[in-house]
Amino acid sequence: MATATRPASAHAVYPAEALQKLFAPPETEQPAEKLRRLLHEARARKTYLHTAGAYDAFTAAIMTRLGFKALYGSGWQLAATKSMFPDIGVYASHDMVKLVHEMWMGIEGARNTHYYDTEGKEVLESPPAFVDMEAGFGGPTQTFTLAVELIRARAAGVHLENQDPANRTCGHIVNVGKQKRNKVLVPRKDWLAKLKAIKAAAQATGVDVVIIARTDSIDGALPDREPGGVQIAVEDAWVAAELGVDVVWPEFNNTEIDQPQEFAEGVRKYYPDQMLGFNLSPSLYFGKAKKAGTLITNQQLADLGYILQFSTLFNFRTAGMALEKGLRKFLKSGLDALADLQIEEEELGGTPPSTKMHQKFAGMNRWLILEQVLSGGR
Questions:
Q1: What CATH architecture is 16-171+180-314?
Q2: Which among 210, 212, 194 has a CA at the least distance from the CA of 202?
Q3: 46: left (phi over 0), alpha (psi -120 to 50) or beta
């Protein structure tokens, strides 16, 4: 009886080696572990880890290319850029989960494109992302559920505030006409219960997510009470520190060093090693402080223990200013404005913007090679 001969075809061979060159090697360090390591290393060096909020894959990719060590997912930017909502907790609870995935796509897209463009000689770091989970969108059960999904989406850290989720608003309430109110807080035990829910989510998923406890007590109040002030925020920090959170973030309402120093000294009284967080918010008038010669520095804040420093909407303000400037000109002069944009990109001193070669930025060359590899080079 004749033995069947197995047919062979060069076109049936899977091009594993060729494909490997098109994807940057994945990092082995888990995002939460990496973020915690970066924080501890910054503290050991007596410096700080600072970043800005990314609001889509595009901003995450640019920040990855520029070398930011970590990324931040800002709820304010999410509300405004995705839905044109103010920061009053009205977007869907799991929209941040979607944003974390979108940021990851930007990070990986930048890494893979850069790896291909440098012929495998350079591998970009994957910046771990910590993100806003507001006031948990409910009680401990809702907080636990959201934390689990954020961890599954590769969030390295989350922050939870002590505002009432039914009445929450931006950490810096600005005057709208003549309207202004105190932020509405929940009792400390309720905030603590939700922080415990995040720890439970970490245990359930097996991922020791970085927990950032935010207190709005300096200019927030329980219903029908007066704002708490710095000392109440310090007492919030003691409770959170006792629970073992990684970072405590107090929201301040001015650009002076007095409140941050008072808060830091109060926390250090019992928890000298507790890392603190600081919001470099454009809602505060840092520009006026700089003109007056009174601007505090990142290192001054780090010396007080504010190791994690971030700007919730720096990208939003930067992009808005650039877009309005360009679009006003384009509205008025059309093609002439586009030509001027290209001239400005060409003549810009130093490194040209990475978006100048827009096809290359998006990795088109890599995708064309990928197409060829998978079709057998035809």
A1: Alpha-Beta Barrel (3.20)
A2: 210
A3: left
- Burial-class residue 72 by CB neighbours within 10 Å (0-12, 13-18, 19+): buried
**77 vs 17, which has greater pLDDT?**
77
Residues 355, 319 contacting (CB under 8 angstroms)? no
Model pLDDT for residues 75-127, shown as the tens digit of each residue: 999 999 999 988 888 899 999 999 999 999 999 999 999 999 999 999 999 99
Burial class (CB in 10 A: 0-12, 13-18, 19+), 356: middle
Q: What's the Cα-to-Cα distance from 135 to each of 122, 132, 139, rounded to whole Å?
A: 40, 9, 9
Q: What pLDDT score does 176 carry? A: 44
Beta-bridge mates of residue 276: 248, 306
Domain definitions of the chain by residue range: 16-171+180-314, 334-374
What is the spatial distance between Cα 260 and Cα 306, in angstroms, rounded to a whole number?
9
Q: What b/e readout covers 23-43, taking b as 16+ CB neighbours within 10 angstroms?
A: ebeeeeebbbbbbbebbeebb
Residue 242 pLDDT more than 90?
yes
Give CA separation, 324 vs 57, 65, 317, 331, in Å: 21, 24, 11, 10
pLDDT, one tens digit per residue, over 260-307 is 999 999 999 999 999 999 999 888 889 999 999 999 999 999 999 999
